[in-house]
Please model this.
Amino acid sequence: MRDVWTVTVESPLGPFRVEGDAEGLRASGFAPEAGGPAIVNGDPHGVEAAFTAYFGGGLDALADLPLAPQGSPFQQTVWAALRRIPPGAAITYTELARRIGRPKAVRAVAGANGRNPLGVVIPCHRVVAMDGKLGGYTGGLARKRWLLAHERAPGYLVP
Model:
C-alpha cells in the first residue's frame, strides 16, 4: 500500500485539492467544499507553497512539481505537450494535435485533454476552441477564464 497524501490550498477560485504519493502528484482540481484539514499525511513535494506562489502571481511555481498521473500512452503524450504550453499562452485543440504529431486526431486530443487528472498543474485550461472561445473545462468556464486572465493570456483578460 502506498503512502498517499492530500493537500488543500485556498485559492481565489475556492479550495483546490491535490493528491499524491512518493512518486508525485496523482490528481488535482477544485474541491467542492473546503471541509477537513488542509494537509493530511504531510506535503512531501511542497505543493502548498507551490500553489500559494502560483495563485499569488508566480506563474512558473508549478513547473517543477513531480507528476505521476495515470493514463494511456496517448493521454500521457497529450499531457506532456500541455506542460510545454507556457503561462500566458493559449493554443487550439488543432494546434495541440499538430504539436504531438497527430494533426488528424483533434477529437482524441480534446478527449485526452478533458480527462486530465491534474487540473492547473497540467494546464488543460490553456487550450481553447478554434474560434477563440473557451471550449470546455472541468472546473467550469468562469475558472478557466480566470486562470487565463491570471496568466495574462492575450484576449482573455478580465475587464
Observations:
- The chain has two domains: 5-55, 73-150.
- Residues 73-83 form the longest helix (11 residues).
